Amino acid sequence: MKALVLNPSSAFTKNVVRDVIYGCWCKGKRIGGGTVIPYWLVLIATILKESGVETDYIDMKFGSRFDPREYGAVIINTSSMSFNEDVAVLGLLKKENPSIKTIVFGSHPTFMPNYCLERDEIDFVVRGEADYVLRDIVSALSEGRSTDEISGIGFKKNGRKIVNSPREYIGDLDDMPFLDDSFIPDIVYFNPLISRYPYIPLITSRGCPGKCVFCPASSFYGNVWRAQSAERVVAEMEHFYKKSYAEVYFRDETFTFNSKRVRDICRLLIRKNIKMKWICNARIGTLDLKLLKLMKAAGCRWIKIGVESGVQEILDRSKKGISVEKTRQSFKWMRQAGIESHAHFMLGMPGETRATVHRTIEFAKEIRPTTASFGICTPYPGTPLFDQVVARHPGYEDGSSVNFSTLHTQGYFNEEFTELKKEALTRALYTAYRKFYLRPSYIFSWLWRIRSAGDLRRLSISAANVLDFAIRGD
Known about the structure:
alpha/beta; Rossmann fold; TIM Barrel; 2 domains; seven-stranded mixed β-sheet; 16 helices; 17 strands; globular
């Protein structure tokens, strides 16, 4: 049996960063038109291939053509905001090939398995960490064996929805295979933060220490953080360095959670003379100037941080677990170390008012990140915020009424936990982009950074998207 690992496109937007497994995806001009090679789908294809299953990976975003009748199973990573569109794609595949088995994994199947199984287009859901569960399903289907006892899955049998017990988390992430880059199509996944191509996405740890009420990452991973050893991380980087990859985009939830591991990675990269540039996510409270200087020396050129708000009361109500003062200090340290920074902000968090929105916009300008993105807080399944909304609005149900047409640019039930209506939040969002990006001093600072034709092209594409969003909307 041949398996298809599929990355669906969207009718609502040209670009979607739909790679993190716990959802929280972004899209559109708001993020500079950027996208990312979908790490999880390439990893799943790699694992299936290593287990002996003939496997294809296809990204529909780039218009790839394929015949559904060639495949016995299709696998999709789906989230609340893409679920209805993804189901429609599966329906079209089943129409062409009624015998194809459809398998979905990701945040929506994890937190809403019964809702997923109500759809005739879906045969299997995978809950939580999907790597080996998907391998077991496809292997059983290939060999004609029963899938009924596989842990971590949900399915339908004799008209009943059955959801098996969860699969235990993978114990040793060092055992994961290197990504098989033969699955990555020969096309450019443009991202404004990437300076050198080709680049490769890697995830070297799983889980997040945070307990933010708006993010499903911690509940998805069971509040457990696990990581590959420094030696394993550098071995995979060296593998791709020898294949002439120029940059690594680490997609870990919190790459810097264990500072000793980060130091060990950096020292190994320096000792082995692996001259790759890299980008990572960090959390306020995990950085200091000495560590940042070491990261810079080892090739780190950009760090992304979830700042969310410039108001301590808002951060506290959201259980973000960081302080405004430490955020100021961290961005100052990044500048001193010569590392570029990206700050994520969310408007419409619990307790938000017009005044706190204004303070957050001013804070964004104060801390001087290289780039910033602003979005509207959305209640996702798997979060306390979602549970709060559903308790008052049962009609919200599984959260799949959110979609890419208005994701992060329009409020969803934010009036339940803020003083602002959704129209006011949308206006505030555009105001934030205009006040941050349309400052003459900011524009000149970027022009000063241009050092090559590649820099000019990257800036032109991303700036055109962001400025168009700031002026005209998405």
